[in-house]
Amino acid sequence: MSAPDPVVVTPATLRDWALPEPGTGKESRGQVLVVGGSTQTPGAVCLAGEAALRAGAGKLALATVAPTATALAVAVPESQVLGLETDANSIAVSAADDILDRAQDVDVVLVGPGLVDPAASTLLLERVLPRLTCPVVVDALGSAYLTEHPEGLHHLAGQALLNVNPTELVHTAGRDEEGVLRDPLDVARAVAERSRVVVLCGGSTKYVVAPSGQAWVVEGGGPGLGVSGSGDVQAGIVAGLLARCADPAQAAVWGAYVHARIGERLAAAVGTVGYLARDMPEQVPAVVAEVG
Question: pTM of the full predicted structure?
Answer without folding.
Answer: 0.96
